[in-house]
């Protein structure tokens, strides 16, 4: 059986869906089932359940707010991860820890390899990296998967924001000097399930293929959604945020390919499928509304 934390979030939701699709026994839990910052509860819960693998998707993900909530962010991303890893150690189960491109400093324009030089620029990035270190210190049977620019049907993300603003505005300023890759949770969930069933432990980068800037991403969303909103490219310095983001978020997939895991489809293809998924979700909601 596979236990998935953060099952009410974007990624955890689709991981559970994929496990169910494959008929793999699993349990998805949210904060209301288990607060991962409570070490006694985590230990007791996991020792009781004895999963063969834990896919740890729960995290403190409010990147800007983290600059003012350092302790809360640390407790969830570092101590919470340590609690899960300690319990995995006790029952000898595998752990998949989800990390981020924000562990890198974003310099240069070459994709970061998995052992590239670490230099988080934000509290969130720092805590996610410390979470990686805890997993590596405590366990042998672990996967660390760095992902970026996540979008899934169960939560808010850049695409949803663009779709909303694209209907309200004729023009939008979007940063063009941060380059990375979007990650569709449906595609990633399939890879995570493959990993959970394997023993090819290690550190991997996993995003959809291809690189783009946020501005290119936004323009493509508008085009594919038939919205007449013009995207105006601006530099990051004209859009200051509380937390500093890396300019270069390109992640190399070399270790994924070397281990012969399937690489994820190109991001434009993932976007097409996501827009179809969103339309399906809207139709379902409207059908339900009509019935009531
Ligand atoms: N989103 C991105 O763009 C992005 C980019 C790179 C990496 N990542 C990583 O990818 C993973 C999944 O991200 P996501 O976008 O799916 O995140 P998400 O939608 O924010 O989901 C995270 C989940 O963790 C839960 N959680 C927070 N604190 C908890 C606690 N103390 N105990 C138990 N559960 C707790 C949250 O529950 P509540 O809703 O109750 O708070 C939420 O459901 C995370 O590890 C994240 O760091 C995300």
Automatic annotation (TrEMBL):
<feature type="domain" description="RmlD-like substrate binding">
    <location>
        <begin position="2"/>
        <end position="277"/>
    </location>
</feature>
<dbReference type="InterPro" id="IPR029903">
    <property type="entry name" value="RmlD-like-bd"/>
</dbReference>
<keyword id="KW-0560">Oxidoreductase</keyword>
<dbReference type="Pfam" id="PF04321">
    <property type="entry name" value="RmlD_sub_bind"/>
</dbReference>
<dbReference type="GO" id="GO:0008831">
    <property type="term" value="F:dTDP-4-dehydrorhamnose reductase activity"/>
</dbReference>
<protein>
    <recommendedName>
        <fullName>dTDP-4-dehydrorhamnose reductase</fullName>
        <ecNumber>1.1.1.133</ecNumber>
    </recommendedName>
</protein>
<dbReference type="InterPro" id="IPR005913">
    <property type="entry name" value="dTDP_dehydrorham_reduct"/>
</dbReference>
<comment type="pathway">
    <text>Carbohydrate biosynthesis; dTDP-L-rhamnose biosynthesis.</text>
</comment>
<comment type="function">
    <text>Catalyzes the reduction of dTDP-6-deoxy-L-lyxo-4-hexulose to yield dTDP-L-rhamnose.</text>
</comment>
<keyword id="KW-0521">NADP</keyword>
<dbReference type="InterPro" id="IPR036291">
    <property type="entry name" value="NAD(P)-bd_dom_sf"/>
</dbReference>
<comment type="similarity">
    <text>Belongs to the dTDP-4-dehydrorhamnose reductase family.</text>
</comment>
């Amino acid at each position: 059986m596979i236990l998935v934390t953060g099952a009410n979030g974007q990624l955890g939701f689709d991981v559970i869906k994929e496990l169910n699709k494959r008929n793999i026994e699993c349990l998805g839990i949210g904060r209301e089932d288990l607060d991962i910052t409570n070490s006694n509860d985590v230990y007791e819960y996991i020792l009781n359940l004895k999963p063969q693998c834990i896919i740890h998707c729960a995290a403190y993900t409010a990147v800007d707010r983290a600059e003012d909530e350092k302790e809360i962010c640390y407790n969830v991303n570092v101590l919470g991860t340590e609690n899960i890893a300690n319990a995995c150690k006790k029952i000898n189960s595998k752990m998949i820890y989800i990390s981020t491109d924000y562990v890198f400093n974003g310099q240069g324009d070459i994709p970061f390899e998995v052992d590239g030089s670490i230099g988080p620029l934000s509290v969130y990035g720092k805590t996610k990296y410390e979470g990686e270190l805890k997993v590596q210190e405590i366990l042998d049977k672990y996967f660390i998967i760095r992902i970026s620019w996540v979008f899934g049907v169960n939560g808010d993300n850049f695409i949803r924001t663009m779709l909303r603003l694209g209907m309200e505005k004729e023009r939008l300023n979007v940063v063009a000097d941060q380059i990375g890759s979007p990650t569709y949770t449906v595609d990633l969930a399939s890879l995570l399930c493959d990993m959970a069933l394997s023993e090819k432990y290690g550190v991997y980068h996993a995003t959809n293929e291809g690189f783009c800037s946020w501005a290119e991403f936004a323009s493509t969303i508008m085009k594919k959604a038939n919205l007449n909103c013009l995207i105006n490219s601006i530099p990051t310095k004209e859009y200051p945020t509380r937390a500093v983001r890396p300019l270069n978020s390109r992640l190399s997939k070399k270790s994924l390919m070397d281990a012969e895991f399937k690489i994820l489809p190109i991001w434009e293809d993932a976007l097409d499928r996501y827009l179809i998924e969103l339309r399906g979700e809207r139709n379902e909601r409207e059908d339900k509304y009509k019935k009531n």
